[in-house]
């Protein structure tokens, strides 16, 4: 018999219209995985209008996520990622659970049920997977939205010992921030007692290129919202969550960790 071709998984992402990072970092992580595992991936997106990270635009954008879930389920994606952390967190404490359940219901109603991963929920679960009860955090947002992220994590039982808000108002400017500056920024935080460092609490601020350098510099696990999203997407697909070059969470130590749904 001829060898069986490796399975190809369709990765769906709901992205803000001005986000240019998740459609590069998630594919980069999963392409790296393809070098060591048989599965293959294709990538498909639907966009919600947003140019500036303000509470008003985030609320309007989130209301558009149902349409995006419908569109992606038309393509019968195997997993659906909501690629805007602060949009979820700004809608209220614990909102990632409501969003994930509602969007999954939309895919099911459209005849193509798919697990849904929000970047907000993935960051929470990724930190829990690491056993990180205390973290230091870098965010690109203005201070009020950064405090929203901090409060959200604290409500989930994750203590934020220190954080910095880079206060970059334009979403494309966030994407243009040099990731190689992030290890130095993180090192300036009070991180000695932190169990892990969140190098980018935003899926628009690129950080993948700097994660392993930051881990070496800081001497502890370093994650980003994008890395946590990739981890949870793989676990939602019941695939081992491992990818080279993406830090400790995807090193293989947590390859078979329970997916987020197991905690509900």
From TrEMBL:
<feature type="active site" description="Nucleophile">
    <location>
        <position position="84"/>
    </location>
</feature>
<dbReference type="Pfam" id="PF17645">
    <property type="entry name" value="Amdase"/>
</dbReference>
<feature type="binding site">
    <location>
        <position position="171"/>
    </location>
    <ligand>
        <name>substrate</name>
    </ligand>
</feature>
<keyword id="KW-0413">Isomerase</keyword>
<feature type="binding site">
    <location>
        <position position="19"/>
    </location>
    <ligand>
        <name>substrate</name>
    </ligand>
</feature>
<comment type="subunit">
    <text>Homodimer.</text>
</comment>
<protein>
    <recommendedName>
        <fullName>Maleate isomerase</fullName>
        <ecNumber>5.2.1.1</ecNumber>
    </recommendedName>
</protein>
<dbReference type="InterPro" id="IPR053714">
    <property type="entry name" value="Iso_Racemase_Enz_sf"/>
</dbReference>
<dbReference type="InterPro" id="IPR028615">
    <property type="entry name" value="Maleate_isomerase"/>
</dbReference>
<feature type="binding site">
    <location>
        <position position="141"/>
    </location>
    <ligand>
        <name>substrate</name>
    </ligand>
</feature>
<comment type="similarity">
    <text>Belongs to the maleate isomerase family.</text>
</comment>
<feature type="modified residue" description="S-(2-succinyl)cysteine">
    <location>
        <position position="84"/>
    </location>
</feature>
<feature type="active site" description="Proton donor">
    <location>
        <position position="202"/>
    </location>
</feature>
<feature type="binding site">
    <location>
        <begin position="203"/>
        <end position="204"/>
    </location>
    <ligand>
        <name>substrate</name>
    </ligand>
</feature>
<dbReference type="InterPro" id="IPR026286">
    <property type="entry name" value="MaiA/AMDase"/>
</dbReference>
<comment type="function">
    <text>Catalyzes cis-trans isomerization of the C2-C3 double bond in maleate to yield fumarate.</text>
</comment>
<feature type="binding site">
    <location>
        <begin position="84"/>
        <end position="86"/>
    </location>
    <ligand>
        <name>substrate</name>
    </ligand>
</feature>
């Amino acid at each position: 018999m001829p060898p069986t071709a490796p399975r190809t998984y369709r990765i769906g992402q709901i992205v803000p219209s001005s986000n240019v990072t998740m459609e590069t970092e998630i594919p980069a992580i999963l392409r790296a995985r393809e070098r060591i595992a048989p599965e293959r991936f294709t990538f498909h997106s639907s966009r919600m209008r947003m140019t500036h990270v303000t509470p008003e635009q985030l609320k309007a954008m989130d209301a558009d996520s149902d349409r995006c879930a419908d569109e992606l389920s038309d393509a019968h994606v195997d997993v659906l990622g909501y690629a805007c952390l602060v949009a979820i967190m700004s809608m209220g404490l614990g909102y990632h659970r409501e969003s994930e359940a509602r969007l999954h219901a939309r895919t099911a109603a459209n005849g193509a049920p798919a697990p849904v991963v929000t970047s907000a929920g993935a960051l929470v679960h990724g930190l829990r997977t690491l056993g990180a009860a205390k973290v230091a955090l870098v965010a690109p947002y203005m201070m009020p939205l950064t405090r929203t992220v901090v409060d959200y994590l604290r409500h989930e039982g994750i203590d934020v010992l220190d954080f910095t808000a880079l206060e970059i108002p334009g979403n494309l400017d966030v994407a243009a921030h040099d990731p190689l500056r992030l290890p130095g920024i993180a090192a300036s935080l009070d991180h000695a007692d932190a169990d892990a460092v969140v190098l980018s609490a935003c899926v628009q601020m690129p950080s993948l290129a700097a994660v392993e350098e930051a881990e070496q510099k800081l001497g502890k696990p370093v994650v980003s919202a994008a890395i946590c999203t990739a981890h949870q997407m793989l676990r939602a697909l019941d695939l081992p969550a491992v990818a080279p070059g993406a830090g400790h969470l995807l090193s293989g130590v947590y390859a078979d960790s329970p997916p987020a749904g197991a905690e509900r």
